[in-house]
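User: My collaborator sent over this chain with a note saying "see what the structure looks like." That's all I know about it. Can you take a look?
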Amino acid sequence: MTDGWSSRGAEARRRAILASYPVDRADVTAHLDRLARLAASICDAPIGLVSVIETDRQRFIGRSGIDLAEAPRETAFCDHAMHMQECMIVSDARTDERFKENPLVTGAPGIRLYAGQPLRSAEGAPLGTLCIIDTALRPPPTDEQQDDLRTLADSAMAILERWRADTHNRTQEARSRNTINELKQRFNVLADVIPNMVWSTLASGRVDYVNRLWCQFTGGPPEESYGERWMQFLHPDDVADVDKAWVSAVDSSEAYEAEYRLRSADGDYRWMLARGTPLLDHAGKVYRWIGTCTDIHEQKATTEQQELLTRELSHRIKNIFAVISGLIALSQRRHPEIKTLGGDLQQRVLALGRAHDFVRPHSEHSRPYPSHSSLSGMLTSLMSPYEAKPGERVAIRGDEVRIDDRSATPLALFFHELATNAAKYGALSVAEGHVEIEVDAGATDCVALTWNEAGGPPVLPPSEPGFGASLVEMSITRQLGGTLDYDWRKQGLRVRARIPAEMMAR
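Assistant: Without extra context I'll predict from the sequence alone. Here is the result:
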């Protein structure tokens, strides 16, 4: 019975599998020679062979009792035997229809007896045989001898498989080394051509690589920055903060970022922005850090200059509000008849001043609020004069919405007018009254602001709009492009403003 490897496609695959075995290695041949010799000895035959069948020839990769290294495939007994499931035995080749005209039978060496045990790869592909040959007529191998041939064939394949795996592993290792070397070269080239300092550390945070630009900047060889020695180039005032940030990043396995001053080769310190990214293994554990240092010295100086100018400008604007408020107070003293109107105007100016002070640029030390760009933060500031502690009489609920200097002024006037009226005539005019401000940014295109009064005296709509109502209308509809709805309920005034989301902040 044959094995089904005789088709053209199967034969091509068989030859590809055979090519993966190191049959030309001298150490492999020496092992197979011993097996061929043992097979001949067990069967008391003059010739023992370990053969493989290639495209057009039969090669003897292990042999005993014969000097022939190969033979044409068309004369090979093994080409038939390797497709058998069991040992193929030819008792007298002269009477076998397959071989009686074979030159190896009619001529030298004059084969009479042949017994071949097929050799199969791990994939089941037929490769050749382990066989014995006799040139004299004699009884075929016994069942016990055939079992021994099968054992020797298994041993031959075990040798071939072991050396095949060894050759594959060596090839893979060589490819891996070549790939690693190529990747290292690529990394080094990229690291040296980009306009940033590049560094790498072990999982512990100890530096083991710096690129050419780092060495040029610090003026020393890479070894001077390895381990923790790179910190010698830090400004003394930055060492503690940098060390704290780095330890935190290593402990948490999160991205690292810090700004610090680094000493150059000429002794000057320049500001750097350092960023590091952890590399993770298959288990999610950090095995290395890769990072860069970017020179931000000019940017830092420009930013500081801009902050200085912004603070100076904001200070002058704040002084202008104070001057206007002082002029109104002076006018009130000279013209008592405008005291009420002047007082309202003065409060509006103060509200604008608070709004400006809220949204103006702040440093980390001057910022008085959790966020100087949030609507809730500004509302808390504006409503503070109407309650002893935040939330006591004015509750601010809903979504957090970002604002900027463009929207802060009209929003401040809007809520200031509502709060002033509530303090004079509505919910904030009595101790038990209260106000709820709702902020809803759920819609994609607008923000809804709702002012709800409760617990105050009944309110009625005015017979005609006053100056405050005109300010509210101007702030919401004209400056912010929104809409206004008033609901003069018996339990308290309710005002709803809808403002395009794009008008709240740039």
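A starting point for your reply to your collaborator: The first strand starts at residue 47 and ends at 53.
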